[in-house]
Specification:
This protein is α+β, with helices and mostly antiparallel strands. Helices cover 28% and strands 28% of the residues. β9 and β10 form a beta hairpin. It binds adenosine monophosphate (AMP).
Amino acid sequence: MSDPVFKPLPPLSTIGILGGGQLGRMMAMAAAQMGYHVHIYCPEENCPASEASKYTTTGKYDDTAALVKFAKSVDVVTYEFENIPAEPVAEITKYANVFPSPQILATSQHRVLEKQEINKMGIATAPFVPVSSVGGLHEATQKIGIPSVLKTARMGYDGKGQFMLKSVNDIEKAWEKLGGSELILEGFVDFSMEISVIVARDIKGNIQCYCPVQNIHKNHILHETIAPAPISEKLATEAENIAKKIADGLNLVGLLAIEMFVTADGILVNELAPRPHNSGHWTIDAAITNQFEQTIRAVCGLVLGNPARLCDARMLNLIGDDVDDWEKYSGEKNAKLHLYGKKETKPGRKMGHVTYLITDNR
Ligand code: AMP
């Protein structure tokens, strides 16, 4: 249904969002601010996004009939997480525009396809070999070397589905843990910093890019984001140019987050996420246009907003029972507290975040 004369969706149009987590919730809040309605489709009842949306359909992601009905009821479809089966999403493009495209969704779901696409654009990643058997894993370690990281090609997030190989003795253990799924062996990257760049591209090919930010992880989960990343201007420009090249190369319409490693030899791309990203939450309070509004603008065919920073910022994730300290955070100077309305606190669950605005003591 891709329409070459796609007109901006007027206010009161309905944006369909696949997924009902905190990213959907914050997208819905941005959409509401701009006078749009939001229809959430997700498998869980009472999801965080529903509270901020006019309509919710509870359904499975592989229920094509329910997804088609959903697509027919909205004016455009986007998604807030990428582990949705790509085939039914491709099917619904007969009834509604889906941005970013199902092809981008499929690419970002598979670490091998993702790295192949990125390398085709002349952009570097960690060296990698697809693995599908224990013999293949032995061969892959010959090519890639050890230390290396074995990962499931699909459905990995927050360090899940990963095994670090530190010696040849780990090969069998890694296979025992992850064997059976499609896998990828990646060379271990000795990075000095992890950064990400969030880029938006509209249907006409205009691009806007947020500044690179530094990401600090704890237990494989994002803990802190520093905006801007403390890197040289030259490196920041290089990171932004990589992001723009990928957005163009994928013919992106929407928002794309690109995770990168900074190494002594330059930047390597690690992962793509075609949706708003945890490392962009600082933009709600510290950028002219936040990443959620930018997504809405891109998928609704509006002119992209200015991504410039209003001030420097530091975003702290509230994971698990960190959220119990909500009152402390709510009283801190220059702190903006965001809670996601999740009823159950679980270890490792993202419950909210705090953004500290760095404003020279104002
Ligand atoms: P990922 O799921 O690929 O984002 O990986 C989660 C985290 O594991 C990354 O943010 C890195 O801290 C670490 N990691 C992933 N891949 C590699 C690699 N090839 N070399 C070193 N560290 C890695």
